[in-house]
Amino acid sequence: MIMVLIAVLYMTTASAQENIDESCYHCHPAQVNEFQASVHFNKNTCADCHGGDINISGNVVSINVMHTNFTGKPTPLNVTNFCSKCHESETRVYKESIHWERLKEGRSAASCTDCHGIHNILSSKNTNSSTHFENIPGTCAKCHENQTRMQALYYGIQTDRFDTYKKSFHYKSYASGGRLLAVCSDCHENHDTKQASDPKSAVNPTNLPATCGKTGCHTGANNVFITGGKIHEEQSVKLLSIDAKGLVTYFYIIMILFELSFTIGLIFLGITSKFEIRRRH
Ligand code: HEC
Ligand code: HEC
Ligand code: HEC
Ligand code: HEC
Ligand code: HEC
Ligand code: HEC
After folding, report:
1. Pocket mutation for ligand 1, best pick of 28, 36, 54, 71 (most atoms within 8 Å of C-beta)
2. Which of 160, 178, 193 is the endpoint of a domain?
3. Does 185 fall in a domain?
4. Ligand 1 centre distance from Cα of residue 87 (Å)
5. DSSP codes joined into one string, 145-162
6. Is 273 a domain residue?
């Protein structure tokens, strides 16, 4: 294969950081600038995620650096392969989530970079991080408040989760200058997010006493407390709730049973009446 060489003389400046991939900088300054402010800077290089070999062309800036093991831009499904190299445990937990399930089905559900950013990843302790406590509702709302995004995927999913959350006790005091009490991921988990109907979900009715009862929250929360609580406004949590989808299913099952017995009854009546007519003649 012919290696195209866009050769630009490259001078190593004495002040250059060891970990800046100078060879990438010349052609991708936007990504490098973001990267320099991220938590990965000075610990990782571009090549740690993208592959490539920054030393391949010596002092010459060349696209040849994007050669050895170069993986380029990952597909949404391949992002986890970038991160799992170093964040194995988080990736393992994430792969149990509804987000990963849906991503595998080709839907645009959350991958690592949707919540954490790409080249600008920061520790969640940093107030500018998309996963900083106060920024989490906004990070989830990017998708969960988005009518078209949610509807195109699955019309059963509510798009009012941010709005209903904002009306809740946990957010209200914050809106008026007080403290933010609980955010999305406190109840739904950050990586192990599951549907409420999943018995393993932190918001499944059977697990709510433990979720609400986390240290610093409602220690000793019992079923009575939970049944009375409102989380997504107007949707008080019912321990034996039947949702709309369930109702429709039950309706159809009853309809089918009714129709079946009606048809069988008609056939039966038909047979017996024929039998009677024959007997008379
Ligand atoms: C001499 C210029 C040059 C250098 C040096 C260079 N690149 Fe590129 N890179 C390009 C060009 C040109 C493209 C293709 C343009 C496009 O699709 O936007 C590209 C595309 C990419 C892509 C996207 C590939 C895809 O699949 O769409 C990634 C990721 C990338 N480069 C990473 C790197 C990394 C990491 C380095 C350093 C190890 C590097 N590049 C060094 C010029 C360069
Ligand atoms: C922590 C992993 C990680 C590191 C480190 C990293 N990248 Fe990326 N990069 C990604 C991911 C993930 C994408 C795909 C983004 C997307 O899906 O839009 C990407 C996309 C790109 C693209 C394609 C941009 C586009 O929008 O099409 C370029 C170019 C690129 N990276 C260059 C770099 C350069 C240069 C560095 C070093 C300064 C670097 N990356 C470091 C993870 C990383
Ligand atoms: C080559 C190894 C490597 C890869 C690949 C990598 N990271 Fe990291 N990551 C690190 C290191 C090292 C740190 C810094 C930890 C520290 O400062 O204590 C870090 C820090 C982080 C942090 C902040 C952690 C904290 O405790 O403050 C997040 C979030 C993060 N990475 C997410 C990602 C995501 C998302 C990807 C994939 C797009 C990724 N990382 C890819 C090595 C990596
Ligand atoms: C739905 C959003 C979401 C997705 C998807 C997600 N994370 Fe996170 N992640 C979070 C949140 C929120 C936190 C911070 C939780 C906290 O406050 O302790 C976090 C914490 C982390 C941390 C600990 C460092 C820190 O800043 O506290 C790492 C490392 C990390 N995630 C890596 C990953 C990797 C790797 C993936 C993909 C396999 C991933 N995350 C997918 C939301 C997400
Ligand atoms: C990139 C977009 C995106 C982001 C960001 C995102 N989600 Fe999701 N989420 C989805 C999609 C898509 C689904 C799957 C909907 C479906 O088809 O069931 C989903 C499913 C869920 C579900 C299960 C609900 C259901 O009915 O399937 C919960 C709970 C959830 N997400 C919570 C969160 C929380 C909490 C955050 C932030 C920490 C978050 N999500 C961030 C896109 C996203
Ligand atoms: C105090 C805990 C708590 C907080 C904070 C919270 N939720 Fe929920 N969420 C729940 C509970 C409990 C349910 C299940 C009962 C219901 O549907 O109201 C639920 C249901 C959901 C569902 C539907 C899940 C399903 O499987 O049908 C989505 C999506 C969702 N929440 C997203 C969010 C988002 C996004 C945020 C932040 C903006 C958030 N939640 C904040 C507790 C919480």
Report:
1. 28
2. 193
3. yes
4. 25
5. T-HHHHHHH-TTS-S-HH
6. no
Q: Are residues 165 and 211 in the same domain?
A: no
Digit-coded pLDDT (tens) for 77-117: 999 999 999 999 999 999 999 999 999 998 889 999 999 99
Q: Which domain holds residue 15?
A: 8-66
183 and 226 share a domain?
no
Question: pTM here?
Answer: 0.85
Choosing from 173, 193, 213, the residue where a domain stops is 193
As for ligand 4, residues whose beta carbon falls within 6 Å of it are 80, 83, 87, 90-91, 94, 99, 110-112, 114-116, 123-124, 131, 133, 136, 185, 190-191, 193
pLDDT in tens, 174-215: 878 888 888 999 999 999 999 999 999 999 988 988 888 887
Alpha helices in 57-214, H assignment, sequence order:
79-84, 88-94, 98-104, 112-116, 136-144, 147-153, 161-166, 169-175, 184-188, 208-212
